[in-house]
Each structure stands twice: as structure tokens, then as C-alpha cells.
Design goal:
alpha+beta; six-stranded mixed β-sheet; 7 helices; globular; Endonuclease/exonuclease/phosphatase domain-containing protein; Endo/exonu/phosph_ase_sf
């Protein structure tokens, strides 16, 4: 008798082939660069550059070391470059070594075309291979992927490193990423096996007013259909993939409020799906906060979604210690990745766990078992463990 099951997983891959150079710096340096990059691009979009806007642009370009020139990827101390396509943004006098005489000459967005890009460095080859190994060993039918660069990069990764050893066909032929609101280009997406082609998708990148969008990336809805022969054949499965506002650079009130707003909107989307008759919904991804946090209560306490940690049996990925966290060392305060199930799925869940073999674990990598192909922390697949759940599709 054929048994019908589906395994669903969530995994923060922390970029596949490249990542912003600034992210390899100490937290304080990285946070300052990322903040300046995001803010200066916001200012560039202003219709009119007032004296105040021009002054702030100059301050931010100085922070990004782009005041005297447009940046150089060969300089390891440079984290960003200024791309100018049309028109003129700055006047840079000669013999001005400190940039004190640089001025903004563009009157507003219509006067020039350009932006600031973060410089990206290639990720260690072994780390890329270990990322693929995690996905192969978890062997999920559907994987919600966090921090993918873009769809083509994710497809290149799956088509080259995740192949069936028998026929050399991709294990995950269905790949989708919708570019979100993050100016660094780290997005959320999904990969799925041949049995689960994507039937529909819906983006929420525009939720919220212009200039104050709800989602830092997106909360895409990925719709699948349960296969023929199962008890749920023909019914819909909707997977919501998320990456909430990070605590990177400090867990300040604005950061908490942003995550709470995101959690509330995801809860509303979930409630709308359920009200429309969709019984099988998964909310997954990196929510960047702990289960007891105020920010996540609209999603964790005010809906009927159930965390995969409540599924029995549950394997936390460490044979020796109680380790509920999903990030870094896996402590309780490091539980930031989630896979939440609607009641219709939770009652069918037969097994769940945390797969942390791709994480280094501690200074010396000795906190829990990891792949023998990881010999140093920079070869780890990710600082995040993968999480998964098995669902019984039979009666």
C-alpha cells in the first residue's frame, strides 16, 4: 500500500553564492553600512532635494566612503559603490582630499538616475556545497528558502548542486523567488519537487503605504495542490514564507514595532485564507524573535497556528542537550526560525525536528554534531538550522 506524506521545511541559507561585504564585518560596522545604504537610496527617490536632504545625502555618502569617488570593488575597505546611469548627482572639486567641498548638484530624482549598491563577495565554495548537502539530507518536498539572492541564483544553485544521482535531473525543478523590499537583494522563495508544481502565487510587497511598506522583504503566498491518490487530493496547500525585520545593530523599539506590525499582517493574511475556506496553511521563515517576544504574539498567540515544536515526536538535532533554538548555538534565546501549521495540518503531523548538521556550533564547533565536510566555521552551510515537519496525507 502506497503511503502519502509530505515533508515541508524552512531554511535560512544566508545567501547562496555571494553576500554583502559589509556583513563580514563586526556588527557595529555592518549595521552602520546597511543603515546608510538603505537611507541614502530612500533619499535619492525624493522628488525634490531640499537643502536638508542634500546635507544628509553628503553625510551618508561620507559614511559609505563614496564622497570622493564612486567606490572601487578592489578596495577591501570599500563596502558600496555609487552607480550613475544618467545625469549628475555631485560636484567633486579637485584638490579636495577630505571631500569637504563636495556638493549635491541634482535638484531631485528627475535630474539624474542612479543608486548605491552594496559590494558583494563570493561565498566559500565549501559553504555552498554544505548548504546543498543540508537540503539534500532534509529531503523535503517543499522548502521555504530565506535569504536567496534572486530566482535565477536559486535556480542555478538547485540545477547545479541538487540533482537526482540516477538521472541527473533537478530534485527541485520548481523554483520561485519574488523580489521584495530589501535593498540588499535578500529575498524569500520556495523550491519544490516534481510532485508539487506551483499552482498560484500572490505577493504582498505593496502592503502598507508607499515609503512605509509592512514587509522588509515580502510575505508571498505559494499555492500548491495535494497529489492524486492522497486523502487530500485536489485540495490546496498555501505556504507563506517570511523574513521579519532583523535585530541586527540593536533590538530597539522601532525594530520591535516593525516585527509586531509584520506579525499582525501575516496573521490577517492567514485569517483571510482560512475564512476563504483554505484549511491547509503553513507560515514559515525567519521571524527574528523568540516565542515569548511581544512582537510575535499577534501570530503565535492570537491565531490557531501551531509551532512544529509541539509535534510529537520532535528531534531538536542534539543527542546530548536540550537545544530548542534554531540559530547559532541553538539556545532558547536563539529560537527565531519557525514553521507554523494550521489545525488541519497539525492534526496530521507525524514527525518534526531541527536539522543542525550544517551549523558549526560554538567557537570550536563542538556543541553538537555537524557534517564531516565542515572543518571550520566559515565552511558552515549557515548559522541557521533547517526545520522540517512530516504530514500524513492518508485517511
Amino acid at each position: 500500500m502506497v503511503q502519502h506524506t509530505i515533508r515541508i521545511a524552512a531554511y535560512n541559507v544566508e545567501n547562496l553564492f555571494s553576500r554583502p561585504r559589509a556583513m563580514n564585518q563586526p556588527v557595529g560596522v555592518a549595521a552602520a553600512v546597511l543603515r546608510a545604504h538603505a537611507r541614502v537610496n530612500e533619499l535619492f527617490d525624493q522628488e525634490v532635494y531640499t537643502p536638508e536632504v542634500k546635507a544628509e545625502i553628503l553625510v551618508l555618502l561620507k559614511e559609505l566612503k563614496l564622497l570622493r569617488d564612486d567606490g572601487d570593488v578592489t578596495r577591501t575597505s570599500t563596502f558600496a559603490i555609487l552607480r550613475r546611469i544618467r545625469g549628475r548627482l555631485l560636484r567633486r572639486p579637485q584638490n579636495d582630499p577630505d571631500g569637504s567641498q563636495v556638493t549635491v548638484v541634482a535638484s531631485g530624482r528627475g535630474a539624474w538616475t542612479g543608486w548605491v549598491d552594496l559590494i558583494k563577495d563570493r561565498i566559500e565554495e565549501k559553504a555552498i556545497a554544505n548548504t546543498a548537502r543540508v537540503i539534500r539530507e532534509v529531503a523535503a518536498d517543499i522548502v521555504g528558502v530565506v535569504e536567496a539572492e534572486d530566482r535565477l541564483t536559486l535556480a542555478r544553485f538547485t540545477d547545479s548542486l541538487l540533482l537526482n544521482p540516477v538521472d541527473a535531473e533537478p530534485l527541485y525543478p520548481h523554483v520561485m523567488v519574488i523580489d521584495g523590499n530589501d535593498p540588499r537583494g535578500i529575498d524569500v522563495g520556495v523550491i519544490a519537487t516534481k510532485a508539487y508544481p506551483l499552482s498560484m502565487m500572490r505577493s504582498h510587497i505593496d502592503d502598507g503605504p508607499f515609503g512605509d511598506r509592512v514587509f522588509s522583504r515580502d510575505c508571498p503566498e505559494y499555492w500548491f495542490t495535494f497529489p492524486a491518490g492522497s486523502a487530500l487530493a485536489g485540495q490546496q496547500l498555501v505556504v507563506l514564507v517570511n523574513h521579519f525585520k532583523s535585530k541586527f545593530g540593536g533590538n530597539n523599539p522601532a525594530s520591535i514595532a516593525r516585527r509586531k506590525r509584520q506579525a499582525k499582517r501575516v496573521a490577517d493574511i492567514y485569517d483571510e485564507l482560512r475564512a476563504a475556506g483554505v484549511e491547509h496553511v503553513v507560515v514559515l521563515g525567519d521571524l527574528n524573535d523568540t516565542p515569548d517576544s511581544e512582537a510575535l504574539q499577534p501570530l503565535l498567540a492570537d491565531t490557531d497556528l501551531k509551532d512544529l515544536a509541539l509535534v510529537q515526536p520532535f528531534d531538536d538535532g542534539d543527542p546530548d542537550e536540550d537545544r530548542p533554538g534554531t540559530f547559532g548555538n541553538g539556545t532558547k534565546s536563539n529560537k527565531i526560525d519557525y514553521l507554523l501549521l494550521s489545525p488541519g495540518l497539525f492534526t496530521r503531523a507525524t514527525n518534526a525536528g531541527i536539522f543542525r548538521m550544517g551549523v558549526w556550533g560554538g567557537i570550536n564547533g563542538t556543541l553538537f554534531p555537524h557534517f564531516d565536510t565542515i572543518e571550520a566555521d566559515h565552511e558552515a552551510a549557515s548559522d541557521h538550522a533547517a526545520i522540517y515537519v512530516d504530514i500524513n496525507l492518508d485517511e
